[in-house]
Each structure stands twice: as C-alpha cells, then as structure tokens.
C-alpha cells in the first residue's frame, strides 16, 4: 500500500494518515458508501444498497481500470474515512453524473471522526491524485442539507445540475497532467 506523503497542513488530526485505496479496501468503501447514503439518519440498509444497482455500482468490482481513491486511517491503522472516484457510462449514471469521461466522487467519514478535517484531507488528496492521473474534472452529487456541501464549495466545486433534492457539482482541475 502506498502511503501518501503529507505536510502538517494536510494532516487532519494527530495520528491520521492517508494512503491509496486498494482492492483490499472494497469492504471498507462499501461501509463508507452506506455512511454517505445515511449522512443525516438511517435511511438505507447495507443490503438495500447492494441490491440496488444504481447504489451498488459505486463499489461493485472495486477497483476497475481508471478508479482511484484514498483511505484515512487512525493511529492504530483502522480506516476512518475514504474518498474515491469512478467513471460511469451514460446508460448507468451516478447521482453526480456529468459525462462518461468525468469521474464521480464518493466521500465519507465514520461518524466518530467527522468534524476533524478528515473529509477535507481526503478530498484534497483525491483531487491531487486525479490531477496526477490526468483528470481535468471531477463531479459529485450532494443532497440538500448535507453539511459536506460547504466543504465542496470551499474546494471550488460549483453546482452544474439538479436532480430531485440533490445538486450535481463539478470541479475543474487546474494543471491536470496531460
């Protein structure tokens, strides 16, 4: 596993480190997907998410070619949050779908670790990874009332669409490798 070098300003709190997400993280990404869907209250069970193709495609077959992500671990090495990106075809779009060439992000942090900068550190690192991968844009979907929307706006995401009670947001990456 690749540990991602971080400066002191990148570290959300003492003892948390960031590393690249791997195939061995598929189970944890699934747990974080459940947290992301249940950001405000329990609305879905893990079984419901995995039985619903439009939900499950965020983690099914992780990682596929072109997928990338980051995991945050506490001082004991226990994962506490993750951010990852996948591309979806127009025939099977994600909730933040913009274009089949634009990876869509999923970001989540376990409840006991929220509000400590972990989500921001994950988001910043997955954006840096996207830039290194030559990605020029990232998208995501965020429901009305989700406090994470403030984080996304603070990092330069702008609303480019709306579906139901969710905004589709887009970030244009400056300096993406060609």
From TrEMBL:
UniProt xrefs under SUPFAM superfamilies: Acyl-CoA N-acyltransferases (Nat)
Keywords recorded for this protein, A-Z: Acyltransferase, Transferase
GO terms for MF: acyltransferase activity, transferring groups other than amino-acyl groups
Organism superkingdom: Bacteria
Keyword Transferase: yes
Domain (N-acetyltransferase) ranges: 16-174
Signal peptide range in chain numbering: none
A Pfam family that the UniProt record links to this protein: Acetyltransf_1
PANTHER family: ACETYLTRANSFERASE, AMINOALKYLPHOSPHONATE N-ACETYLTRANSFERASE-RELATED-RELATED
Name of the protein: N-acetyltransferase family protein
Species: Streptomyces sp. R44
């Amino acid at each position: 596993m690749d540990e991602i070098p971080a400066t002191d300003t990148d570290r959300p709190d003492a003892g948390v480190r960031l590393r690249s997400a791997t195939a061995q993280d598929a189970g944890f990404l699934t747990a974080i997907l459940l947290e992301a869907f249940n950001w405000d209250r329990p609305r879905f069970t893990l079984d419901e998410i995995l039985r619903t193709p439009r939900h499950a495609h965020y983690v099914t077959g992780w990682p596929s070619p072109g997928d990338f992500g980051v995991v945050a671990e506490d001082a004991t090495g226990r994962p506490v949050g993750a951010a990852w990106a996948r591309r979806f075809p127009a025939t099977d779009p994600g909730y933040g779908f913009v274009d089949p060439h634009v990876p869509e992000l999923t970001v989540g942090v376990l409840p006991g670790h929220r509000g400590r900068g972990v989500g921001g550190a994950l988001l910043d690192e997955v954006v840096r990874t996207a830039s290194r991968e030559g990605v020029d844009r990232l998208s995501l979907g965020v429901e009305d009332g989700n406090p994470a929307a403030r984080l996304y706006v603070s990092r330069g995401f702008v609303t480019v669409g709306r579906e139901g009670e969710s905004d589709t947001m887009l970030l244009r990456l400056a300096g993406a490798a060609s």
